[in-house]
Amino acid sequence: MGAAIGLCAAAAVCVLLAFGEWRALGVQVWAQVQYPAGPRVAGPELIAPVGATAAALVAAAAILVGCLCGWRALSPAGPLAAGVALFGAGMFAAADFVQAARVLRRGELTDGWQSLVTDHVLLVVGGVLVIAALMPGRWRAVGPALPRTRSSPAMRAVAVLAGIVAIPVAWYLVQLSNQGFYAYPNPTWLGFRPTADLENATVAGVVVVLGLLAASRPVPRITGVIAGTPMLAMGLAGLLAPRLASEAIRSLGFSPSWRYAILQALASCLTLLYGGILVVSGLAPESWPSAGLLAALAGSAQAGSAETAVPS
């Protein structure tokens, strides 16, 4: 049953991301013409579109993946099956773009599917799910819930500090996985010249970092939530209010190349997707409401109704 849920979720994630990327195309085109030297648009200035539908579709995909990663009441076979399916599809697409195009869209990769292939989104999401599923705590024998122990203030402080440190690390790795960065007019902000080996290492780094944060074991849940919240907020801003996001980036004093790079990141859907996965997986409950809790609530409701029925 868990594997079937995972496979259905994997199919839903693919569809949501493909249509989300397609609906975000208008925002991405607008962001791409905002060159560091100024917009290269003949005639009236382009009006920044609003990608509300794209944001909703990508957020739905992030919620699905985040629940598979962090909701421990689900069988680990669910995230494992979904992760293997998505990772296999990503490997197939990365190994043979032409054959992947024939399978997906009758000989051509449409804009939504192309982004999933070129940015290795399926590879990353599948790898994150596999890491979350393989955490030892997910394969505990089903039995009475273990008592939860409160962590010490020092451990909570370490978890918060780790989340703060993970913000720039996760952000930088995610942006390097965006293939649009390699075509920038002035890519010197990267600090190096991208190569094929570096691209593979970047994808592996994104999978490991996001996987450990989303698995929430052994990394505390609060760490992933802290690391993902800024990416989630910026991803929503980039799709829902791209003009406002562009002005905010400009007001922070970044150089033209950095402003252009950050704007591309916000419009790419990757920031919203990966940030949402971390936040949802960190906020997912440990278990379903227990039968005892439900019985207690029902008994309380019955007692209240009985009191109201007693004549005065």
Concise description?
With 312 residues, the chain is mainly alpha-helical.
Order of helices and strands: HHHHHHHHHHHHHH
Distance between the termini: 53 Å
Q: Class by helix and strand content?
A: mainly alpha
The mean pLDDT is 76
Instruction: State the shape.
Output: globular
Largest sheet: none
Q: Approximately what portion of the residues adopt beta-strand conformation?
A: under 5%
The residue ranges in which pLDDT falls below 50 over 5 or more consecutive positions are: 142-147, 183-189, 288-298
Cα radius of gyration in angstroms: 22 Å
| Count of discrete alpha- or pi-helical segments spanning 4 or more residues | 14
In total, the number of strands is 0
- Report the helical percentage: 55-70%
What does this entry look like structurally?
Mean pLDDT is 76; it is low at 142-147, 183-189 and 288-298. The chain has 312 residues and is mainly α. The protein has 14 helices and no strands. Helix content is 70%, strand content 0%. The termini are far apart.
Give a topology summary.
Layout: H1 2-23, H2 25-32, H3 52-70, H4 77-95, H5 97-105, H6 111-118, H7 121-133, H8 153-176, H9 196-215, H10 221-240, H11 242-251, H12 256-267, H13 270-283, H14 291-309
Helix pairs in contact: 1-3, 1-4, 1-6, 2-12, 3-7, 3-13, 4-5, 4-7, 7-9, 8-9, 8-10, 9-10, 9-13, 10-11, 10-12, 10-13, 11-12
